[in-house]
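User: Is it possible to get a 3D structure for a protein together with its bound compound? The compound here is 2-phosphoglycolic acid. I've pasted both below.
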Amino acid sequence: MSRRPIIAGNWKMHNNREESLKLVSGIKDAIQNIDLDALPEVVVAPVFTSLHVVSEKICNCGCAKIKLAAQNCYYEAKGAFTGEVSIDMIKDFDAKYIIIGHSERRQIFGESDEMINKKAIAIIDAGLTPIICCGETLEQRELGVTDSHIASQIVKALDGIKPSDVANVVIAYEPIWAIGTGKTCDSAEANRVIKGIRATLTQIAGKENADKVRILYGGSVKPETIKEQMAQSDIDGALVGGASLKVDSFVEIIKGAI
Ligand code: PGA
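Assistant: Yes, that's possible. Here is the predicted structure of the complex:
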């Protein structure tokens, strides 16, 4: 089963309009001579306020090489939800993906598995693709409950979603202790957990659908780590935070996934 790899840059709460434009332009220029077929799917996830400028930059260059993602959404279509952004509003910018369930959203903003499930359903209904994050804390890892915790996050996030739709979601395994710490999870261990995620997906949606799901690794991915990560049997790409904020390091990671 060949799955097209994804290298996604999660810019988090970085980059104003001008900085976002500079970063996406730099990425675009750096990959322009690489054939689309040779590239992994390259995705950038700017803050909401930069979606417009980044979207225009990608479209102006007819750039099928860079896809747009939002970092979050709300599942209701409209209404009295101060501070939230709907999926239709994100669709205005031709985004293809929406990241949901990032550990920062879960931990800092108190998002529950139930909310993440509602978001996943609404994103799929709108014709977009959720990038669903999961991952364990250091404490959970030390207690030996990593696999059961992640299986539970996946089962809850995908509750009520048709097996054929499960095939199209993207999952990012991001051990929380590896995010922004410089401590990358050992590649073989990340692969082992990701195989476990695929086993859970097989139970939920059947083997044929589970085999189609792209599962990324995230957590201190760097140019020096990407080759070994991509060499693993079940790692289909990376969700990159810190190293996606500089053209050079992000492009090196893209090239490392070719
Ligand atoms: P990091 O972040 O690459 O800076 O560890 C990854 C993420 O949170 O998606």
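The longest helix spans residues 187-205. Residues 10, 174, 179-180, 218-221, 239-243 surround 2-phosphoglycolic acid (CB under 6 Å).
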